[in-house]
Design goal:
Elements lengths: L10 E17 L5 E15 L2 E5 L3 E5 L5 E16 L8 E4 L1 H15 L3 H19 L11 H10 L7 H8 L3 H12 L3 H19 L4 H8 L4 H12 L3 H11 L1
Antiparallel strand pairs: 1-5, 2-3, 2-4, 2-5, 4-6
Helix pairs in contact: 1-2, 2-3, 3-4, 4-5, 6-7, 6-9
Length: about 250
C-alpha cells in the first residue's frame, strides 16, 4: 500500500482551488508534500530527471523537499499541502476518477472550514488511491476496506468499536485486527486515536472550543482521558497546544 502509513501522523496544512492560465515556472523545495488533481486542463512536471504528464482525474503526489519545473496550457486545480512521512520519494501519479472527485470534495470542505467532513473525505480519497496501488500479493488487505471506510466516516462516534469495523468487512474481529496491523503498522484503536487527535488539533487551533467541547467533538466521553491521549500523541496537553498556537498566530 503506497500510503499505508500516511495517517500517522498527518496534517493538512493548506487547501487551494484555483485556475491558472498558460504558463511555465520553477518551484523551489518546500517543507511539505502536495496532492493535486486537475478539474480542467493538463500539465507537465519535471523533477529529478523524471517527466510526468497529468490531466483530468489524475492525482499527482509531490514529496516534500522536491524542486520541479511545470508547464501548462491552462488548468483548474484542487491542491492539498500535507505534512506527513512514509510516502513515495518521487513524483507519482495515480489515475482514479473517484479518488479525484474525493480530493476535490476534500478541498472544498476545507475551504468551507468543515474540518470533520474534510478529513473524513480525505481518508476515503487515500483509500481509493491505495486500492489502485495495492500489489497482487497484498490483495487480502482489500478484505478490510469496508471497515476502514466506516472508520474514516465515523471516527467521531464515541461508541465506535473494532467489532463494528469487522462486521462492516464481514470478517472476525481477530482477523480484522491482524490485517489492519499488517497494513497500517498500528492497531485499529491506535489508528482511531490518531484520527481523533489530528482532528482535535484543528479544533484547538480554531480557538472556538474549550477542552471539554473538543473532546466531545472528536469522540471522547471523558475530557481527562482525551487530555491523556492527546499529551501522549502530541507531547503537550490540549491547553498547552491551544496556547502555543495562540502565541504563534
Amino acid at each position: 500500500m503506497v500510503f499505508s502509513n500516511l495517517f500517522s501522523p498527518i496534517t493538512v496544512q493548506n487547501s487551494l482551488l484555483f485556475t491558472r492560465k498558460a504558463t511555465a515556472y520553477y518551484t523551489k523545495k518546500r517543507n511539505f508534500s502536495v496532492l493535486s488533481t486537475r478539474i480542467e486542463g493538463n500539465a507537465v512536471f519535471s523533477a529529478r530527471g523524471k517527466e510526468i504528464s497529468v490531466g483530468k482525474n489524475d492525482i499527482l503526489f509531490i514529496p516534500e523537499n522536491t524542486a520541479y519545473w511545470q508547464k501548462t496550457e491552462g488548468e483548474t486545480v484542487a491542491v492539498l499541502h500535507i505534512l506527513t512521512s512514509n510516502v513515495p520519494e518521487e513524483l507519482t501519479v495515480f489515475h482514479s476518477d473517484r479518488g479525484a472527485e474525493l480530493l476535490i470534495e476534500t478541498v472544498k470542505k476545507f475551504e468551507e472550514n468543515l474540518y470533520y467532513q474534510a478529513y473524513s473525505t480525505f481518508y476515503l480519497m487515500l483509500e481509493q488511491i491505495n486500492k489502485q496501488s495495492t500489489e497482487t500479493g497484498k490483495k487480502p488487505y482489500s478484505l478490510i476496506s469496508e471497515g476502514e471506510q466506516y472508520l474514516y466516516a465515523n471516527f467521531r462516534s464515541p461508541g465506535l468499536t473494532v467489532d463494528q469495523l469487522a462486521r462492516e468487512s464481514n470478517i472476525s474481529s481477530v482477523y480484522f485486527r491482524k490485517l489492519f496491523k499488517e497494513q497500517h503498522g498500528v492497531s485499529p484503536k491506535q489508528h482511531l486515536d490518531e484520527l481523533r487527535i489530528n482532528y482535535a488539533k484543528q479544533l484547538l487551533a480554531d480557538y472556538s472550543y474549550n477542552i471539554q467541547e473538543v473532546a466531545a467533538q472528536v469522540g471522547y466521553y471523558d475530557a481527562n482521558y482525551f487530555s491523556t491521549v492527546f499529551k501522549k500523541k502530541v507531547g503537550m496537553s490540549p491547553l498547552q497546544y491551544q496556547k502555543k498556537h495562540l502565541l504563534v498566530d
